[in-house]
Amino acid sequence: MEVLHEMQFTQPELFSTLRFRIGIRGEQDQLRIRNFGLYEGPDIMTRQILFAKTQHWTIDPYAFWSNPTHSARGTSSTGELIALYINAKSGDS
Question: Block means of pLDDT (10 residues each) for the chain, length 93 residues?
């Protein structure tokens, strides 16, 4: 597999028709960890929502997990991935 992984970069024409790329074991996990380390926190809009809703959420913590009544536009792609991860983990319990 390592030979094929190397070949897809040295001879990309051989792999042009493949829908998927060959990865090294653990490569995706390493990329996720690296990208998570680069995460600088929520964007300005998210911070404003958090600040505005803090008092309500401290009174009713369950309200934090209910679906928002507004669309969350402007969220960074990393923030969206983290939100998907949190939602997926909360569904596992």
Answer: 82 82 84 88 88 88 71 65 76 55
Residue reference for tokens 């970069």: 9
User: How many Å separate Cα 69 from the centre of its chain?
Assistant: 22
For residue 46 the two structure tokens come to: 């998210």
Separation in Å, CA 10 to CA 3, 4, 15, 18, 24: 10, 10, 10, 15, 15
Q: Which residue, chain included where needed, has tokens 């051989």? A: 14
Q: How many CB atoms lie within 10 A of CB 81?
A: 15
Phi, psi torsion values for 46, nearest 5 degrees = -65, -40
